[in-house]
Structures are given as structure tokens and as C-alpha cells.
Specification:
Shape: elongated
Strand content: under 5%
Structural class: mainly alpha
Helix content: over 70%
Number of helices: 4
Number of domains: 1
């Protein structure tokens, strides 16, 4: 797996977040603004940053990048759904937002590890 899957997923999530923002603006109902923000930042922007990083460090491609991608993707889907559930007063939201938060954090921890691994003293860009 290389960084392109992160980039492609990231721009799709950004587009979906932008569509949600436009929808909220058209309706003048900003109840789901936190969903919009988390989709754009925790989903789209972080995915794109990871994609650029991994494409610049092809030696890091492997099992951990696949784990990072899976955690990030599932995490942001659950996080966005759970935040939406919370703001729409749905009773099911606590475990969904909790799982999404934990998975998103785990993805970030994997990415932190990969950044430190890929930017150590003896590493160079491709």
C-alpha cells in the first residue's frame, strides 16, 4: 500500500465534509458543524498529510501503513456518525463515538510512530 490510497480517500472525505457544510449553509442549520469539522480535519486533512508523507517515504510502505489506513478510515466513519448521533439526540451514539475516537487516536499513534521512524537521523526521502 502506498500513500495514494490515503490521498484518494482523504480528498473524498474532504469533498463529503464540504458537501455537508454547503448543505448546512443552505438550510441555515449548523447542528452538524462538529461533524463537518471532524470529517475535514481528522478525516480529510490527516489522510492527505499521511498520503504525502508515505509517498515521500516509500520504504515505510507495509503492514503498519495498512493498519494506519484501516484504523483511520473506520475511526473517522464511526467518529463522524457518533458525533452526528450525539447532536441529533440519538441514544446509540455513546459507543459509536467512543469507538471512533479510540480508533482515530490509535491511527494517530501509528502515524506518530511512522513519522518518527521515517524521519530519524539515518533516513532520507526517496
Amino acid at each position: 500500500m502506498n500513500g495514494n490510497i490515503f490521498l484518494r480517500t482523504g480528498v473524498v472525505i474532504l469533498a463529503l465534509g464540504m458537501c455537508l457544510g454547503i448543505y448546512m449553509g443552505a438550510k441555515q442549520d449548523f447542528t452538524l458543524a462538529p461533524v463537518h469539522a471532524h470529517m475535514n480535519l481528522a478525516g480529510g486533512v490527516l489522510m492527505c498529510i499521511a498520503g504525502l508523507f508515505y509517498n515521500n517515504r516509500p520504504a515505510l510502505w507495509g503492514k503498519l501503513t495498512t493498519i494506519h489506513y484501516g484504523l483511520q478510515l473506520v475511526g473517522i466513519i464511526l467518529l463522524a456518525a457518533g458525533i452526528a448521533g450525539a447532536h441529533l439526540n440519538q441514544k446509540w451514539f455513546p459507543p459509536v463515538v467512543g469507538a471512533g475516537s479510540v480508533l482515530t487516536l490509535l491511527a494517530m499513534l501509528v502515524f506518530i510512530f511512522m513519522v518518527f521512524k521515517g524521519t530519524g537521523r539515518n533516513t532520507t526521502a526517496a
